[in-house]
Write a structure and sequence with these properties.
- There is one protein chain.
- Helix content is about 40%, strand content about 15%.
- It is built from 11 helices and 9 strands.
- Strands 3-2-1-4-5-6-8 form a 7-stranded parallel β-sheet, sandwiched between helices. A two-stranded parallel ribbon has the order 7-9.
- Helix 1 packs across helix 6, helix 3 (about 80-95) packs parallel to helix 4 (about 115-130) and helix 8 runs antiparallel to helix 9.
- The relative contact order is 0.13.
- It is an enzyme of class 1 (oxidoreductase).
- Keywords: Oxidoreductase.
């Protein structure tokens, strides 16, 4: 059994490599790929094989004799579909045994702005004929480090998410799930909706931050228009403003509320609560 991990120089990919090793996978059957040669050198110290790999110019020989490809989605928004398609087609020609793809929550139906590329990739993957597992990863606890810093500085979190809920978990939880799927049976041609065990609102997030900081943190819910004006006053780029406002609108609609316990079932333990991740930011 051999494993290829794309994006291994990124946060999730590196954690997947760590999780495979923690599950007893021999280092020499793991190929960690990425563009950052310095980070690859760090990974090679653990004994895994490494290959410089560019989504825009994938090298076919990397996939020779691979049993499992863990396709961590590209970070280049707007270019993901052709990048992923190129990798899937190479894997198909190389007769890779299966592909595990990290997608987005309810990618086939959600209004999330980033989901369209994941939905298209899922369709390409399913149509390829290669056995697959789709991991629709929910939101990461780590996405809210900026909100924590804002709360520490101002005592407030400002947004337009209302009482919408977010089922977040630590990035490491999702990485461990990918490693479990890669090393155990029963996951072929399955799609998993993954999220944290406990969903929270932004008011509850403020309470969590209050407990850690030892001071009161309030959540100020504003309209989408007011949030846009606030972000504009901070000089943020228009594209980022659109994304942040749209995300809060989606959260208000419970788009990031993932029901069920698929993630904790896969990893065999409770998911990491926000407070445990936030402790690392103190």
């Amino acid at each position: 059994m051999s494993f290829i991990v794309t994006g291994a120089t990124g946060h999730l990919g590196a954690l997947i490599v760590e999780s495979l090793l923690a599950r007893g996978v021999a280092p020499d059957v793991i190929v960690a790929t990425g563009r950052n040669s310095d980070r690859l050198a760090e990974l090679s110290a653990s004994g895994v094989r490494t290959e410089v790999f560019d989504f825009n110019n994938p090298t076919p020989q990397v996939f020779d004799e691979a049993d499992t490809l863990i396709l961590v989605s590209s970070s280049e928004v707007g270019q993901r579909v052709p990048q992923h398609q190129a990798v899937i087609e190479i894997a198909q020609r190389a007769h890779v045994g299966r592909i595990i793809y990290t997608s987005a929550p309810r990618a086939n139906s959600t209004p999330l702005p980033l989901a369209a590329e994941h939905r298209a990739t899922e369709e390409i993957l399913i149509g390829s004929g290669v056995p697959y597992t789709i991991l629709r990863n929910g939101w990461y606890n780590e996405n809210y480090e900026g909100a924590f810093n804002e709360a520490r500085e101002t005592g407030t979190i400002v947004g337009s998410a209302g009482s919408g809920k977010v089922s977040s978990a630590a990035r490491r939880d999702y990485a461990e799930a990918a490693a479990v799927v890669a090393t155990t049976e029963g996951h072929l041609n399955q799609t998993y909706e993954l999220g944290g065990d406990t969903a929270w609102t932004f008011a509850e997030l403020a309470q969590t931050f209050s407990a850690l900081l030892g001071t009161t943190v309030d959540y100020h819910n504003v309209s989408a228009e007011e949030q846009r004006e606030l972000l504009e006053s901070r000089g943020l780029p228009d594209g980022l403003i659109d994304f942040l406002v749209t995300m809060d609108t989606n959260i208000e609609q419970d788009v990031l509320h993932v029901e069920g316990y698929a993630l904790s079932s896969l990893i065999g333990r409770a998911t990491t609560p926000m407070i445990e991740t936030a402790k690392t930011w103190l």
